[in-house]
Design brief:
The chain has one domain (1-35). It contains one helix and no strands. It has 44 residues and is mainly α.
Length: 44
């Protein structure tokens, strides 16, 4: 596998991880503002 192909695959993986973490961060902030729980359900 060439270096360029490895670099493209690595870039795609990093972008996917960043997208997932970004969505979780947005959900966390919205839930804290709205007083909800992050993954649904009640803790109490």
């Amino acid at each position: 596998m060439s270096l360029k192909k490895k670099r493209i695959i690595t870039l795609i993986i990093v972008i996917l991880i960043a997208a997932v973490l970004g969505r979780l961060a947005v959900r966390f902030v919205m839930n804290m503002m709205l007083g909800g729980t992050l993954f649904g359900g009640d803790f109490l």
